[in-house]
Amino acid sequence: MFSVEQAKQMAAKLKASLELREHKISYSAALEMVSHQLGFRDWNTAAAMLRPQPPESQIQFSKPIPILRIFDIRKAQEFYLEFLSFHVEFEHRFEPHLPLYMGIVRDGLQLHLSEHHGDASPGATIFIPMKNIELLRNELHDKHYGYGRPEIFKQDWGDVMEVHDPFGNRLRFCQS
């Protein structure tokens, strides 16, 4: 989604571009055109609906990416790629035969898996808010994984399904 500042910049560029072609329009007319291009009725509606541009001096965080410790690449691939249906985003080794650092992703959830000694401790728990937890449970059951058939438990804060990887880490999926 565009910010208000980005839409204003688009309007200024549109106005300047049209002026180069000898089509003079006002800045407000350019704002109206941009708002229509973005799917809004008019500039006032667009300005109310578009997100404000945060000040550059304001601290901003992005979504965290948990790092989980692994010890056996084959077991990690069987669990995360085959059972949980993640996809490899990247793999990194400083040299052949050195520990693996791997990024995996599935439906907006990113995890990093590391064989490096200092990156993480085994036995971590990751809380993963989600939707359609029953679909995930059914998908996992259909795979007939020999080391786990997770179930959903009702808690005060939502439906929870915990999955344990081969390295002692827990992925706690929760639908509130």
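Second entry:
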Amino acid sequence: MRFDPYGQLKPHGPGEWFSRRSEAFTRTCPFSPSAYNEDELAQVQFPMARNLDDRIGRYEAAYVGHVEQGDLRAFGSSGGMVTWTAMELMRRGLIDAVAHVAATPSPDEGAPLFRYVISRSEASLRAGAKSRYYPIELSEVIKAIRFTPGRYAVVGLPCFIKAIHLLRAEDPVLRERVVFTLGLFCGHMKSARMVESFAWQMGEQIQAVDNIDFRAKDPSRPANWYTARIGLKTGGERRQDWWHFVDGDWGAGFFQNSACNFCDDVVAETADISFGDAWIEPYSSDGRGTNVVVIRSPVLDRIVRSAFAAGELCLKAVDADFVHQTQAAGFRQRREGLALRLSRRRFGVRPRKRIAPLPPRLSVRRLAVYLLRGQITYWSHRIFFLARLLNKPGLYTRWARTGLAVYQGFAYSRGKIGAAIDRLQAAAPSLSPRSKTSADLHD
């Protein structure tokens, strides 16, 4: 896997590899139409699950809360539950190591800022805390797991966890050694160019960047007020709130990987346990961070219940509706939006998804949001490539600022564009009846 000109990881190899058919590959690529889907994998993994919901899949229990004891909550991006769970599995002797993403120490020019590593101590796990909005891949740790006996947990995004299960079905060594999977709720994956864009907008070149914290935590501010902090190789740092970036609106789709347009798993439905941010009040205003947790493994459910009873965790049981509300924008994009995208004519591989490829009945505003988001995704890679080639950051930032203004005019219930669309919808509602999910327009 290597970075392409747009800062996305792509496979590289001999020309004949790309033209050679491989039945095994069609079964193990998580986006292959021939691979098992999330429902089929979850049926095998969790056949006796107590609950089944068509949005979050099979599960034993769901909670909202945080780590109560120690400093894990303060140290992580959210409530500290991901690192706590990995540590607890290690403390109980249920695993020997954890495969997770960590920062690359003092990366050379052109080297990735983050990569998968294998941790065998709590100190190493702590170093991997925090959110990483950066392209990464699993090949090196898969090789390491195959080479070194032991029991492993793997932390990953929904498509990564799905890929692990597809590989386990083909490889008895991985099936024996990967014993737990810890999933992360996902909006979409960004390209490496987002870090570069943030650096530009803070007055720095990417060559000067030593590290980045995408979500520098401040308990005095709401959790959803993201602040990016870049550490410089000279020892200094720069900080800026995301809303001051021309591409800081996550929902607009800047630098999104195109594969994410054809994913229908928001909450890592095939993972033994999965974690997200509780983007719903009063939790989103708590700058200390709060997790929403979906547990599918009975073993992990017992561990979490025991820790809650001992006062290590502060948790409240919630239902599938609550989990859905905390990720409402992501579910719209991967249900309503995906149905629209699947209904459009495509060339090449046709995805096989759990969503019917039918154009949903959308409001004018929602239709515009999905179409604009697709255009921003497509052109952000290309305009940034040109600006980078010419060394003219302003070429990209001016385009991005204009694109964001148009997108937000449709996406949010404010501004002249939004008001005009609302008047059009009210005057001619029969032109485009609203769907049940189009009322909440905040993306």
